[in-house]
Design goal:
CATH class of the largest domain: Alpha Beta
CATH architecture of the largest domain: 3-Layer(aba) Sandwich
CATH superfamily of the largest domain: Response regulator
Structural class: alpha/beta
Distance between the termini: 19 Å
Number of helices: 10
Shape: elongated
Largest sheet: 5 strands, parallel
Helix content: 40-55%
Strand content: 15-25%
Length: 197
């Protein structure tokens, strides 16, 4: 809640309502409300604009946002329920502080990402008629700071996966050792708790 509380204090000190700040930021009132409730964190460009509008130090706001991810949202999207059932406990073991959520339908994962800031997404590449590469694009459009690690049984997809800006690539089956290795390579690191903290 560090970023949420900091933002609320800065806004109040400036004598701005949530609506007034939203208008100055060119965002919806709901966006400001989500930032102040701790449900969402703005991206780096938005934090930069907030620092200008509120007359606050950019690095201080950025640090508050980084520390606010105490319980980062991590999702795993795979149309195979067996893979999800086996993979989710491994993710929880490796990242005990994270909120881990599994999805068999990519559309549900994308809707979830619109309401919850995703720190890390493990995406199957082949999901019936939907490609994990397209899901990756959708997630990065929602939040460019989402880390994406692709999961597949076919290593020949690696080249296409790297073109998306993904952080990593795991050939199934998923293992705790491989997840730990990928966490060290994330584009946007975050605290995961346990022995990886």
């Amino acid at each position: 809640m560090l970023f949420a509380d900091t933002l609320k204090k800065l806004r109040t000190k400036k004598g701005l309502s949530q609506q007034a700040l939203a208008e100055k930021m060119y965002v919806t009132n709901a966006a400001v409300s989500r930032w102040e409730s701790g449900h969402r964190l703005p991206d780096v460009a938005t934090i930069s604009r907030l620092s200008e509008v509120l007359g606050a130090d950019f690095n201080m706001l950025l640090a508050a946002a980084a520390q606010s991810d105490e319980h980062p949202n991590v999702i795993m999207v795979d149309d195979n329920k067996v893979i999800l059932t086996g993979g989710l406990p491994i993710l929880k073991e490796v990242m005990p502080n994270a909120r881990i959520t599994g999805f068999t339908k990519s559309a549900e994962a994308i809707e979830y990402a619109k309401e919850n800031r995703i720190a890390l997404a493990f995406l199957d590449i082949e999901m019936g008629t939907v490609s994990g590469l397209h899901v990756c694009e959708a997630l990065l459009e929602i939040n460019p700071n989402t880390n994406v690690v692709f999961l597949t049984a076919y290593s020949d997809y690696a080249l296409d996966a790297w073109k998306t800006g993904a952080s990593g690539f795991i050939v199934k089956p998923i293992t705790a050792q491989e997840v730990r290795k990928q966490l060290k390579r994330l584009n946007y690191p975050f605290p995961v708790g346990g022995e990886n903290a």
